[in-house]
Amino acid sequence: MPASERAVELLTAAAEAAHDKKAENVLAFDVSEQLAITDAFLVASASNDRQVRAIVDAIEDKLREDFDAKPVRREGAREGRWVLLDYLEIVIHVQHDEERSFYSLERLWRDCPVIPLPSPVPGVPTD
User: Fold this and answer.
1) pTM
2) For 44, which of 18, 36, 53, 84 could close a Cys bridge (C-beta 3.0–4.6 Å)?
3) pLDDT digits (tens, 9 = 90+) for 98-108
């Protein structure tokens, strides 16, 4: 069974919030066939710890405001190197570029279908 409609809506909103904070390489995977605990993963990265935290804050604000959704678990926020937000339907990974390169989650989940996400519009300010 593919990712639920709500999971895709949450992913799309989270991706938009991440793009607004200049997240890089934002990707989403439908992991519903491989994992029973969630429908999809969103992976994004940033070049420094401060930006990782800003992206995470923007995602949490957007999902809370638009969907009244709060993560049931939030890990790694203090260090700002790899923050995991668990919303049950989706799990969001915001990683520092170094962690993203080392752990390569997209390689680990490469057999899972990619979920199309909106791209930022070139030349349009996102702040």
Assistant:
1) 0.90
2) 18
3) 999 999 998 99
